[in-house]
Write a structure and sequence with these properties.
Blueprint lengths: L6 H8 L5 H16 L2 H21 L2 E2 L9 E2 L3 H8 L1 H32 L5 H11 L6 H11 L6 H6 L12 H26 L4 H8 L4 H40 L10 H10 L4 H33 L1
Antiparallel strand pairs: 1-2
């Protein structure tokens, strides 16, 4: 038997307030989602922000890393001393040369190879991509050992191919470029993978529409593909700027130890040298803080440009 409700009764039922007990039940559900973030937030604080604060505190102290040695507060003296050292300015210049030298390996060559790989189809493309990505999986220390053997003066494979007798690793002019080439060879596969992912995200409808209007393949790449690929290119530039000093550290420490005559000592290796060779923890921490602030500014500018480009493309 069906009972019809009057309109006044239905309106009263709809407009009835939610009981307080139901509201209390819903509130914990909203808090549960934030609880899932707590482990990640805790790890971020423990492994990132806490060491940054400790590094800043250590940069205002004079300490030789010995537990029995007292820490003495020196204020900004470490920063003043660091900026007066010629080695610090020289290491920054070498870091800039390193980054500029790596950009062709992380941006230009992956772009050209990615365009060429679009002509490869089927299983051949999979094999091609696997071989291209393989160097990135090699441990840097193992790669350094192999490259030292290849660059051995006189009987190394490089000298045999080029017909030279040059000590590539201990030549002050050649050693920085050896580090750049080996690091670029190591990063090339990763950059190509990112570039392929960027190209895969571009719809083919743009190219087909342009061909209908009479555009050539070169015009499509220049005026359609490259602008749409600009966020990927800026991401690779950002990765090169931020990670290149860190990624070169195992190669420099295994092959040249910063030499010859500090020709391969970049700013990242220099702060490690201050800490574990000179045992000057305060000076090393000051270099680390300046390194963090400098790369943070550069990364912020690149991210801002990337967002502007992405907004313009949309």
């Amino acid at each position: 038997m069906f009972v019809l409700e009057a309109p006044e009764q239905r309106e009263t039922a709809v407009s009835e307030p939610i009981p307080a007990s139901h509201a209390r039940r819903r509130r914990p559900r909203g808090l549960v989602s934030y609880l899932y973030l707590l482990p990640a937030l805790a790890l971020l604080i423990i492994w990132t922000y806490r060491p940054l604060v400790q590094a800043f505190e250590l940069s205002t102290l004079s300490w030789n890393l010995l537990p029995t040695s007292p820490m003495r507060s020196v204020g900004t003296a470490n920063y003043e001393r660091l900026l007066e050292l010629p080695a610090f300015g020289a290491s920054i210049r070498r870091t800039v040369v390193l980054i500029v030298g790596l950009l062709p390996f992380t941006v230009l060559l992956p772009l050209l190879i990615a365009f060429a790989a679009r002509r490869v189809s089927g299983r051949a493309r999979t094999v091609y991509q696997a071989f291209a990505f393989a160097p990135f999986l090699v441990a840097p220390v193992a790669a350094a050992a192999v490259w030292r053997w290849l660059l051995h003066p006189g009987n190394g494979m490089v000298d045999r191919v080029l017909g030279t007798d040059r000590n590539w690793v201990y030549d002050a002019q050649a050693a920085p470029w050896v580090i750049i080439v080996i690091t670029g060879w190591h990063l090339l596969g990763f950059a190509m993978l990112v570039m392929w992912a960027g190209l895969a995200g571009i719809s083919g409808d743009y190219g087909e529409a342009a061909r209908v209007d009479g555009a050539s393949d070169g015009q499509i790449r220049r005026w359609i593909t490259l602008p749409l690929l600009s966020p990927t290119l800026l991401f690779l530039v950002l990765t090169t700027v931020v990670l290149s000093p860190t990624l070169t550290f195992p190669l420099i420490d295994s092959m040249t130890q910063g030499g010859p005559t500090q020709a391969t000592t970049n700013v990242f290796y220099l702060l490690w040298d201050y800490a574990f060779h000179s045992f000057d923890a305060g000076l090393s921490a000051a270099a680390g803080v300046l390194l963090f602030l400098g790369f943070g500014v550069v990364a912020g500018v690149l991210v801002w440009i990337s967002e502007k480009v992405a907004f313009h493309d949309d």
